[in-house]
Amino acid sequence: MQSSSIIKVFFITSFVLFTVYLAAVSFASATETVDRIVAVVNEDIIRLRELNIAFEPVAEQIYAQNYAEPKERKLLYEKRNEVLNQLIDETLIDQVVRKKGISVSSSEIDNAIERIKSMNYYTDEDLRDSLKVAGMDMQTYRDEIRRQILRSKMVNREVKASIVITDSEIRDYYENHPEKYKGATEYHLKNIFIPYADGYNPDSESASRKKIVDAMTELNNGQVFETVARKYSESANAVDGGDLGNFAINDLQKELQPVIKNLAIGEASPIIETEQGFQIFHLEEIVKAPDKPFDMVAEKLRDVLYRQAVDKKFEEWLSSLREESHIRITR
Questions:
Q1: Is residue 293 part of a domain?
Q2: Looking at the 3D structure of the chain, how many domains does it have?
Q3: Could you count the other beta carbons within 10 Å of the beta carbon of residue 256?
């Protein structure tokens, strides 16, 4: 599992917790399953019912894709193992929470629930009704919110508190990734566009072909592109001399990219046959945006490097917890 995926398990927002947890509990309450132990984590156990509750939203997403039966079965097996490992990780963190004596006040839980209500435009009655539909009372829900806050505090203390991103690290990243901060190059283009008179048939000697050839002849004879565009082009921008505006090369259709890239400023392209019609492009100018200065992106880079460091340290910390623990999966 990628570190960023692991982090998301423990930094789940209250809103996601609310929607996913309610849906899962609702499923579990509607399904009769013989319970058993599926994993032992030090002094704690994980039961089959817990695994089913956590896995059901994932399973529903897989079923919705309508995969062929062998692939569906393989995905279900793999994702079920992933969910079980997530539950093991959560159990390990809960154990550390107990050992460290970390606590959560009632006001913190109240504030979290108020944020959930605000995000969902719920009144207190709406929330209780939703919990009731899912077969859950408010105290059970408060206990789940409490566990999530405790885990978040634990990760903040064990992982985040010791991470410091220095100015030199930010500068090194900036200098080693110039492609991310160099100004983009854009091409200011104009065109003459003649749609096909009888559909896409490039081999026909249609009126459309004759018209674009006539336009090309005038350009080759030295006529100004804007004048020719106003005379021949059938696009809405003809009144503006065929002006299309600025485009980065990757914004253009792939077949047009090499044509535009090889044009000199002030040069017109050969006649191009596209699915929509015949076109001639004119490169008015090449506009290069200035590079982004270090001071402009430094704080954003600090955030990027901080998140990367948190992900890495969290994965290392969780791995060490596993190595120091007795974990037995019983299936």
A1: no
A2: 2
A3: 18
